[in-house]
Amino acid sequence: MENGGGPGARKSFLALFGEIFEGPESQEGMFLAANTGIHKTLAGIDSESASQDVCGSSVAAHAAHLMLYLEVLGGYLKGEIRGVDWTAGWAKTTVDPEEWDTIRAGIRRECGKIEVHADKINEWDADMVSLTMALTIHSAYHLGAIRQIAKHL
Amino acid sequence: MSESGITIAKADFLNDIGYILRETFEGSPEGQGSAYLDNRVGVFSTLDELTAEQVSREHEDTSIVAHTEHLKFYLDRLVEFIEGREEPVNWDQSWLIDTVDEEEWDTLKAGMHNSYENVLRCLAGVAEWNRKKIGEAIAIVAHTAYHLGAIRQMAKSVKSGSAVSEE
Predict the structure, then answer these.
(1) Residue B54: which H helix or E strand, with range?
(2) Largest CA-CA distance found in chain B, in angstroms, rounded
(3) pLDDT tens across B114-159, in order?
(4) Which of A40, A50, A123, B105 lies at a CB distance of 3.0 to 4.6 Å from A60, suitable for a disulfide?
(5) Does A16 touch chain B (CB under 8 A)?
(6) What is the ipTM of this complex?
């Protein structure tokens, strides 16, 4: 960015994206408290609880949708454009232990791929900025919903 | 070109943050693309569908109005930080409201509109975007999205009647 903001944008994205998934590096992050990131939140929920219907939704449904979004937009970052049926990501509302482990591992895998890729990109054009922003904001939205559902479990 | 070789046009950043901020608060227009929310879904439409009684219901030690007040408080403080505030914030002060009557709810919703407009004004006026300000700008949207996700989940409970009513 002109005015010296270029490296700042990449560092800011990686810091906030990391906070949303891993939790804050220190006790208090930019907006999350310690141990409230996506990975730790999902790690504390078993497949039975994740499958519980809470007002027409479940943690498993949000997590499966989140994994699909990470896969698709992570691909967009690399120029891999594909059509997506977003409703498919909401079809999975219940999981067995193996499926739950697969979803949580998938979120970790896709999250890691995005961070590695973003860290290597030097030319942050408008698409790169909008995609990384969408990845961050979308993840925050579902973390808020998941943590609210988790209070009922 | 910056020293590290990374370049981002200032206009691109402002356009992108403005786009996703508007979607988060105002919702995306029907028939147009969106970054992460369904058309017309946003903070304002979500809050407008709820009454003071509904937002005051208890959900596992919190309420929709508690999240709403906290959300507005965060917007106001982050604008202050972007504009140079250095003294720390007592965030406990953002969680003081659990219930409202209709007049208080209308006042809070109107205040949210004012705070949102103030964020747009603030971001448009930033002359020099450094890492701190970029992080704060993105945090405004991410924090709002986090609480919108929680609020919309609580709204489902309210509409299904499973939240604890004070009546």
Answers:
(1) helix B52-55
(2) 62
(3) 999 999 999 999 988 888 888 899 999 999 999 999 999 999 988 8
(4) A50
(5) yes
(6) 0.93
- B97 token code pair: 């409201």
Half-sphere exposure of B26 (CA within 13 A, CB side): 14
Predicted confidence pLDDT, tens digits, chain B (167 residues): 343 444 566 777 888 899 999 999 999 888 888 889 988 899 999 999 999 999 999 988 899 999 999 999 999 999 999 999 999 999 999 999 999 999 999 999 999 999 999 999 999 999 888 888 888 999 999 999 999 999 999 999 888 876 544 33
CB-based contact, A141 to chain B, within 8 Å: yes
Residues recorded for chain A: 153
Number of Cβ within 10 Å of residue A81's Cβ equals 9
The angle subtended at Cα A12 by Cα A20 and Cα A132, nearest 5°, is 70
DSSP A87: G
Residue window 114-143, chain B: list those with CB within 8 Å of chain A.
127-136, 138-139, 141-143
**Chain B residue numbers touching A20 (CB-CB < 8 A):** 142
Question: Are A138 and B145 inside 8 Å of each other by CB?
Answer: yes
Distance CA A149, CA B157 (A): 10
Among A8, A32, A152, the residue with its CB nearest the CB of B134 is A8
DSSP B94: G
What's the CA angle centered on A61, arms A112 and A146, to 5 degrees? 75
Q: Write down the residue that tokens 């906070």 correspond to.
A: A19
